[in-house]
Amino acid sequence: MYTDRVIEHFRSPHNMGKLADYSAIGKVGNIACGDVMWLYIRVEQNSDGNDVIADISWETFGCTAAIATSSMVSDLAKGRTLEEAIHLTNQDVANELGGLPPIKMHCSALAADALNEAIYSYLAEQGKAIPEALQQRHERIAKSVAALEKRYEAFADKTGA
Description:
Layout lengths: L3 H8 L12 E6 L6 E10 L5 E11 L2 H14 L4 H5 L3 H7 L8 H22 L5 H28 L2
Antiparallel strand pairs: 1-2, 2-3
Helix pairs in contact: 1-2, 2-5, 4-5, 5-6
């Protein structure tokens, strides 16, 4: 079902945990499966003056594929400029893992979305220009997160949590 690369990233995930000195965070979740990803980035400027993801980490509550894709997206994004990282896709993540079962491709989408949300948050907080494609992704992701929060709120109301 899973490739050796997926299993490797699940068993020994890279960049896992909360980054202490992060610049921004991307929070995403999937209402259907319950996976939740928080991705932290620390941004610094390189010698050319470009914003670069100097460090990255994540916390994911989810299945094998969710853990593996979080690990892989962190590897792919680390050291890239924000402009380069914005263009990483869920297919890039899945390809680097040697593929994912079709039913698990949503995990690679969550990982790419978490990265995009972290970049969006950083640019917004810094008052920097946000590319139109990133703005559109943020609006789509924000709707999904709102639905997840609403479901959680309803659950909390019923259980007293």
